């Protein structure tokens, strides 16, 4: 889940030709109406797409969408990188990893920032990040939660070498933690709920401690954006309509999203503060170039450095053309 997939992205250059022949999406005639193949997976900032589908908001904006839910977030990354999706809901980390492997992708919208729903959770007796020295932490290597762990260690004056990182997929990492196999775990909602099921466990660091470090996005195949700007605009417009509908119909929206996430309505409500869904104004601010964690270009440079330093990619991914604010600027929510 929410996993960097540089290896899969690397073979996009080999598969692109095969995927473009007779396919949909970016392969369709430029300017001709086309169905948008959109992927999403288990994260509170992406479940609103399910609301959009069930409430007919895609149709309201004149776009036909083939919405696919992925139990495995990794599979959604692969699908976009190999031409089996036109757009996907994914993190900035993962987008940069795919781009470093040769994928041509464009970020057109900020869905949300993680403001607490990514957590480092520790067993009883470990009260601070500094207490992790010499301990074992399960985390999905290369993910935003690995990134969060490194940020937290750095803030506490520790290096990654001073802890033992046990690489596991996020669901398996949470299960290993509850089973007592590791001392701490890096996880995101809804798997934080699993991890906190261990009696006495608690979060010792969260994404709320590092504002702006974990943004989530609507990411398109770059060629699709060039060929079908009307559909891209309709998708961005649908997002803002969906956010408005959720705000006006909170209980009904939570019921839809909780059902898709496989949790109770009560549990889903606990995720509210930990995922900040971005408004139109927040999107405009994020796409504005700057030198603070609130600016996407700043975060892209910071995460690119992390990917290189963690040896997850060989060299920093190119950032030219990665961020396209055109559609957010044109939206009129």
Automatic annotation (TrEMBL):
Keywords: Signal. Residues 1-20 form the signal peptide. Its main location: periplasm. GO terms for molecular function: ATPase-coupled transmembrane transporter activity. SUPFAM superfamilies: Periplasmic binding protein-like II (SSF53850). The keyword Signal applies. GO terms for cellular component: membrane; periplasmic space. This is Sulfonate ABC transporter substrate-binding protein. The gene is ssuA. The lineage of its organism: Bacteria, Bacillati, Actinomycetota, Actinomycetes, Micromonosporales. Belongs to the bacterial solute-binding protein SsuA/TauA family. It holds the Pfam family NMT1_2. It is found in: Periplasm. InterPro entries: ABC_SsuA_sub-bd.
